[in-house]
Amino acid sequence: MEFLIFILIGILAGWIAEQVMKRDHGILVNLVVGVVGALLGGFIAGLLGIAWGGIIGQLVIATLGAILLLFILGLIKKN
Length: 79
What we know:
Blueprint: H1 2-20, H2 27-48, H3 54-78
């Protein structure tokens, strides 16, 4: 069950990041961006000593990580 919640949070975080960054991807790309964003956001939050619990906290961290990931990829793509 936790794996399913992880996938759903990844899709939702990827979709929110897509909307914020004004991109247009499909559900599979949203999943990948959300999951990688969750890992990136979790890593950065851990370094900063930020610990948000619960599904909402996980979604916020994953979304912020996904937005950061899309931002970095946009910078790389420009060059």
